[in-house]
Amino acid sequence: MSNNKIKIAIAGIGTVGKGLLDLLLKYKNNETNLEISAIASRRKFKVESRKFKNTLIFADAKELIDFDDYDILVELIGGDEGVSKNIVFDALKKKKNVVTANKALVSKYWRELHSLMKKNESILKYEAAVAGGIPIIKVIDEFLVSNRIKKIYGILNGTSNFILSNMLAYDKNFKKILNDAQKLGYAESDPSFDVDGTDTAHKLSILSSLAFNYNNKTENIKNEGIQNVELQDLKIADSLGYKVKLLGLTEIEKKKVKNFVYPCLLSKDSFIAKVDGVYNAIVVESDFCKKSCFIGEGAGAHPTATSVLSDIIRLSDKRINQKKSSVFVKHKEISLESRFGSYYLRFTTDDRSGVISGIANQFKKYNISMKSMLQKESRTKSDRYATIVITTHSCFEKNMMQALDKINRLNFIRNKTVYLRIEDFK
């Protein structure tokens, strides 16, 4: 990098790529002159600004491997394999710096990417990979560098949050709200990664690896999605003073790390529970700052592109240096079976005597105690089934799963028991 002119090669002009071009056209800084030396995109797009008059246009991003006239590669293609991986690894080997929004790639190849950075004295920035417009990576990597982080949790997927919020708000089931989200552009045509917890797990993997300095792979994270959450449970939870959110949680306790993704009940008074729609919300608990809370748009062209441009500007500063070590600490991961917490349970049973005592007997065997119970009687004489909702005091997940396995086999149980975890965050 010389004479304050920074040459950028951009791979991928989708939603975020177009947003980045918008911001680059408006960005002005007397100290840094950003020049786009190349753009690679399979999609045709118009280059109308004079700012791009010297820009080379490639129809295939793999052509960037034989291209060297850039200081920073901006990778916005996505995916953890193929051309996106190849050009990022190639750029780091060339001693180029890289900015990416690719959470899957960063999560999967965390150790390898850090090794390349150390070996080639290059830098990878990935603020846009987690929570879009919330600068959570910078907060952890820079602002909280003097703090020991204990726990990070929150809403890391705006699509799931939109669906859960609007199911309750508009009294519609999962499929109907998902369809609405797709029409509005909040959900992809294939929304699997958003609703099954995979997207949240990718982001949580990055946050956990960064906060606790270890190589946390996504496959080590137990994740459950929202595709089976029913409207009636959202309504019942609401009547009990809770909201249901898809939560990502990572926490360290004596060099043992929890990494969980699942829908759960949160008190309506908690910070996370109050965040609805497509917004993300993250809480970082540390020893000196105690609790730091962040809210913002987790996706979209300009919020995510803002994070990308922020990383570009940081890399343009010659004073920057990479302080993170590629030597990672080995942490043991705590299994979900070891979780100690409370639960929401909904039973569908025959409407007859002996049901409650039958459930209570199994609870007693597995050291589970009830906190509250709500019983809904049959609506009509022809309706033979009853709905029983129970919340419990804290118990071990392993005990709860064993108890439910036994309960689901009882002769008065008509549908598989619905369970959601309850998290006590203030």
Tell me what the structure shows:
- The chain has helices spanning 15-26, 83-93, 103-108, 110-120, 136-141, 158-170, 174-183, 192-195, 198-212, 231-239, 301-316, 355-365, 397-407; strands spanning 5-11, 33-40, 56-58, 72-75, 97-100, 124-125, 149-155, 222-223, 242-253, 256-267, 279-286, 290-297, 332-334, 340-350, 370-376, 385-392, 395-396, 413-423.
- It is an alpha/beta fold.
- 32% of the residues lie in helices and 28% in strands.
- The strands form two sheets. Strands 7, 8, 9, 10, 11, 12, 13, 14, 15, 16, 17 and 18 form a twelve-stranded mixed beta sheet that branches. It has a six-stranded parallel beta sheet with strand order 3-2-1-4-5-6, sandwiched between helices.
- It folds into three domains: 5-129, Rossmann fold (3-Layer(aba) Sandwich); 136-298, Dihydrodipicolinate Reductase, domain 2, CATH 3.30.360.10; 337-423, ACT domain (Alpha-Beta Plaits), CATH 3.30.70.260.
- The mean pLDDT is 89.
- The relative contact order is 0.12.
- The chain contains 13 helices and 18 strands.
- It starts with a strand and ends with a strand.
- Helix 12 packs antiparallel against helix 13.
Write the layout of secondary structure elements.
Layout: E1 5-11, H1 15-26, E2 33-40, E3 56-58, E4 72-75, H2 83-93, E5 97-100, H3 103-108, H4 110-120, E6 124-125, H5 136-141, E7 149-155, H6 158-170, H7 174-183, H8 192-195, H9 198-212, E8 222-223, H10 231-239, E9 242-253, E10 256-267, E11 279-286, E12 290-297, H11 301-316, E13 332-334, E14 340-350, H12 355-365, E15 370-376, E16 385-392, E17 395-396, H13 397-407, E18 413-423
Helix pairs in contact: 1-11, 6-7, 12-13
